[in-house]
Write a structure and sequence with these properties.
Oligomer: single chain
Number of helices: 12
Largest sheet: 4 strands, antiparallel
Strand content: 5-15%
Strand order of the largest sheet: 1-2-3-4
Mean pLDDT: 86
Shape: globular
């Protein structure tokens, strides 16, 4: 992100003061609190946490308030804050099969072990504006009773295990070597070719809109991979960390995550029979649109691994991973607002010389 600007310090200070004034708005209107943002704009908070690579509801809510609701700016603020934090090591891999589920659906089977759990979702709502939300009073009479966790299976089997029992889906291919520290995209620059774990890190931090467009492109034929949502899960998973002095993992907390496994038809190869293949997505908070798009793109990026012809942007690893980061993209686009006086004057002079030369050549030809 380009942030260094010299000159015009008084104007810049005035711009900052005006920004603060605009952020506050009409002082006769109560100021929004970070707790209100955290509780009532939770989808925005979850996106900022996911793309900011920092699981912290309070800091994400503060960043949204400071950025006046500009989520990419809020993501930038969270990432900047993240760089100041101490690093103690790497947690153990999540075991999402033991997720405390809040929402869990499958588009491949109507009846699944453990049942479909709709949870809180837009999916079945009519897209009509609800003007009652403008009212500043609690409407207890219309409140919806929340579900009781009692009766939910704590260890819901994965939907893809149904296909796995028949040998119709590939085995999960992400294996972690306990002796080798995982790659960390936040500490080391992206290099190509990238292994799948590094690609998934990149996609987890990637701009949701960018991934959505690429995922949509795969469904429209640009990669020939129409995915089926095998399972989408949202819920809390235990975080385990193994301190060196103990030598064994201990549970240090929980995180709310969204997980998606897409399944795609695969015609087979010389070494593999026709079967279904997997695309995977996992990110902080309730960001199911993000993880669905992530899973579609993850599957498209496995073209080389599966011996498929690469014909579409979503299959191009360097294109996808190099352009998915919204903070980096915003910095490069928005730096065009900064002074380029010298560069432009040089190009202006060059264009004038080219026009003069063309005019002389034209006159000579006549």
């Amino acid at each position: 992100m380009y942030v260094a600007v010299k000159g015009g310090e008084k104007a810049i200070r005035n711009a900052h003061a005006l920004f603060d004034e605009k952020r506050r708005g009409d002082v006769s209107v109560p100021e929004i609190t970070t707790e209100q943002i955290k509780q009532q704009l939770s989808f925005s908070v979850d996106r900022v946490m996911s793309e900011g690579s920092l699981y912290d509801f309070d800091l994400s809510a503060l960043a949204i308030k400071q950025a006046r609701g500009d989520l990419i700016e809020a993501i930038f603020l969270v990432r900047a804050s993240r760089t100041t934090l101490a690093r103690f090591g790497s947690s153990k891999p999540f075991d999402t099969s033991h997720m405390r589920v809040e929402r869990r659906i499958s588009a491949t089977y109507k009846d699944i072990p453990g049942g479909q759990i709709l949870g809180a979702t837009f999916d079945y709502q009519h897209r009509l504006l609800d003007f009652s939300l403008e009212e500043q009073k609690l409407q207890d009479e219309t409140s919806v009773e929340t579900r009781d966790d009692v009766g939910l299976d704590a260890d819901m089997p994965r939907v893809l295990d149904i296909l796995n029992n028949e040998g119709l889906v590939e085995q999960a291919s992400l294996e972690m070597n306990e002796d080798t520290p995982p790659s960390d995209l936040t500490r080391s620059p992206l290099e190509f070719p990238a292994d799948r774990s590094l690609r998934l890190q990149n996609l987890a931090r990637a701009d949701e809109g960018f991934l959505l467009a690429l995922g949509y492109s795969t469904q429209r034929g640009y990669a020939r991979n129409h995915g089926f949502a095998g399972e989408i899960r949202i819920g809390s998973v235990a975080v385990e960390f193994a301190p060196e002095e103990l030598g064994f993992p201990i549970e240090i907390g929980e995180m709310i995550v969204s997980e998606c496994e897409m399944i795609n038809q695969f015609k087979g190869s010389k070494s593999a029979p026709p079967q279904f293949t997997r695309g995977y997505g996992l990110a902080f908070g309730q960001v199911e649109r993000k993880v669905m798009s992530m899973a579609l793109v993850d599957r498209a990026l496995r073209a080389d691994e599966l011996g498929e012809e690469k014909t579409a942007p979503a299959q191009d690893e360097e294109f996808v991973l190099s352009h998915s980061d919204n903070v980096k993209a915003t910095g490069f686009v928005e730096h065009l607002k900064l002074p380029h006086y010298v560069d432009f004057q040089a190009e202006l002079e060059l264009v004038r010389k080219m026009r003069a030369k063309q005019r002389v050549m034209k006159e000579a030809a006549e």
